[in-house]
Structure formats: structure tokens, C-alpha cells
Amino acid sequence: MSVIRCVFVFLLATVAAAALASCGGDGGGLDSDYPSAGEDRFELTRATVEIEYTLDGVSAVPVAGALERIELQGPTRISRSDPQDKDGDGRVEVATEIAEMELTGTASFGPLTVRLNPDESSTGMVEQQQPGEDFPADSFFDVFVQVELPSANGGTAVVAKNEEPLRMEAELSDLPPGEDDEYRTADGEAVPLVSVNDATLRLGRIVDALHIPNPAPGPGATETPEKTPTEEPEETPTGEPSVEQALVEELVGCQHRGPGDSVL
Fold it and tell me: Would the pTM of this model clear 0.85, i.e. be above it?
């Protein structure tokens, strides 16, 4: 074997070992098939929020003490990290963050919009319930939002925010969340909503909330058409694979890579 060929094979073997180690293929890696870092975008999520109004005469809000449940929908985008086990408990976790969310609905007093608070991070986590078993998995988010309320006289809308995190919890069947996996408020006290311009002005509180990132299609929804299979070109028979081919095949089998994808 020439010197150049030896160097080439050595480099391929080094890259393969590093790639397999990152996939848990070294025997001491993570026991999980969670996807690598990326983003999940849900175009039409569904949510319900139950708000108790605590202040009269602000915006078009009903009388103090009124409790209202509002249906919302809109896009949500989630970013997630590579699988990891930072606490060393054998249960693989994925760090998550809500990168984008805008939910709209109609309350008794007019339209209502719930957005992420741009001044806070809404972070969370997905974690195996049992070591080596990806699902069901526990998940949560600590959510910070801004709630836009219509003005009573057509002027500037009143915007409220929560200064305490709204803890949302779920038991996931898949990652990204499976169909109808739902996040609900954790047990505990309601989260106050205060004016973004005056934190001493308490407008109400979030008593309960539900968010379904991947809702099942409603009645009458059309099914997603199946992709038409394309004719695969016939392969030319070849002899035994070379060392280089075997190493490359081992590489492309990691982390859902295909033969045409870059491994660097």
C-alpha cells in the first residue's frame, strides 16, 4: 500500500471514530435516538388560556374577578440542542427554547394576542423517563409572554406580561412532539399579569393554560398526499468494497446522514 493511500485510510478511520463517538457508537456514548440539534416549526398550534381579570376600567377588560377561557392558535418555532446527559443520571436530555410564538384569538371584549416576551427567554427541556428509553419523555417550558389587550376606546392597546415564569409540562410520545402531545400548566398558583409599562399595575392572572404544538387535523381536513416514488437507477454490480468505501458507509449511517451529505 502506498504512503498516500495509508494516510488517506488513516484520516478516514480517524473521522469515522470521531463520528461514531458523537453518535454513541463507541460503547460509552448516549443511549438515545433523539435527533441532533435543530429547529421544529409548527405552523398552526392550538392553545387555550384561562385568565382572571383583577382590575376594572383598564382597556376593554371585564369587571374584576371575571374568569374567561380563550381559544388561541398560531405558529410556534422551537429550537433544541444535541442530546446530552449533563447531570450524569443516565437519562438523556435535550435543552429546548421557544424561539417564536404568536397566538391569536377572540375574547368577550375583543381580539387578544399572546406573543413571547422579547426581554425574557422561554427555555425548557426534554428528558427520558427511564435510561435508554426515549419515550415517553418528560418535557417542560418556563414561558414568558406578552398579552395584548384591545383598548376600550380604540386607542393604543394595553400590553400585559408575566414576570414569574409560566411552567408548562408535557409527557411526549415523540420528538418533535407527536400528534396531540400537549403542554399544560403545572400545579401551583396562578401567574400574575402586570402592565409592561407599570409593573405595579396588575391586570389579571393566568389561571390555566394548554398548548398543543402538533394538533391532529380537524374534521374535513385533507390528507397529505403521498410522495410519488421515483424509479431507482439500477446499480452496477461491484466487487468487495474497499477499506475506504466501508469507512464512508459507516460514516453516512450516523445521525441520519445520506450518502450525498457532507460529513465535515
Answer: no
